[in-house]
């Protein structure tokens, strides 16, 4: 979708991470609700509303085993006009994003946000949106921790699209963005089965793919192609 928005809508992107201090298990669900409410208020701020042309927002939760607490946070990929980075009347600095986030959360303990321009080829920012909302190394620490993650994430909209991203997602689902896909050139040969144990993956089985399996998994299309 980024390639489509960059080429067809002539947009650039910023990657915003919104965070707050960790919370104990019994406060996690309410904290996520506060995040959602605060984010809605942030997007309604006039100085933000006029520069955001669309966004993809992802909820992620990490677990701190040493302190036994949880860290919900938002990764937000925002589409902006190309002039955003040079227009001093529109550009929002990192310090201003922090101030705005503290205001809408009403949490003076927040000390940081992260915001940066997405440069050509920085696929790691897209990965932050696409990856799972919780790492297995976190939620498989114990049954108790797993249940906390399960209750907190159950029924939640983990990825939210708005504006141009929402329009592009509709086009993508309708097969209208096929031109922005390319063939996966990886040659897959083996099928490997893993099991999770002792806080790491353990290889259980490794075998060669059959001819039919290789035909099925090789040469598939991936979601996007880079636009130079």
From TrEMBL:
Pfam families hit by this protein: Rep_1
InterPro entries in alphabetical order: Rep
Keywords per UniProt: DNA replication
GO biological processes: DNA replication
UniProt-recorded Gene Ontology molecular function terms: DNA binding
Family: Belongs to the Gram-positive plasmids replication protein type 1 family.
Protein name: Replication protein
Organism: Halolactibacillus halophilus
């Amino acid at each position: 979708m980024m390639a489509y928005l960059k080429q067809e809508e002539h947009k650039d992107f910023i990657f915003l991470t919104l965070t707050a201090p960790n919370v104990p298990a019994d406060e996690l669900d309410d904290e996520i609700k506060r995040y959602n409410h605060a984010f809605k208020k942030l997007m309604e701020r006039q100085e933000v509303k006029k520069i955001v042309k669309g966004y993809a927002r992802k909820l992620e939760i990490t677990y701190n085993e040493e302190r036994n607490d949880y860290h919900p946070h938002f990764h937000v990929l925002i589409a902006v006009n190309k002039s955003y980075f040079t227009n001093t009347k529109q550009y929002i600095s990192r310090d201003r994003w922090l101030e705005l986030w503290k205001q809408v959360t009403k949490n003076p303990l927040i000390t940081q946000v992260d915001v940066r321009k997405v440069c050509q080829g920085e696929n790691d920012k897209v990965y932050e949106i696409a990856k799972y909302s919780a790492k297995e190394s976190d939620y498989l620490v114990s049954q108790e921790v797993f249940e906390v993650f399960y209750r907190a994430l159950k029924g939640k909209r983990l990825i939210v699209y708005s504006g141009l991203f929402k329009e592009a997602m509709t086009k993508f689902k309708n097969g209208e963005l096929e031109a922005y896909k390319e063939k996966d050139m990886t040659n897959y040969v083996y099928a490997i089965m893993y099991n999770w144990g002792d806080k790491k993956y353990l290889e259980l089985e490794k075998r060669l793919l059959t001819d039919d399996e290789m035909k099925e998994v090789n040469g598939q299309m991936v979601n996007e192609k880079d636009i130079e």
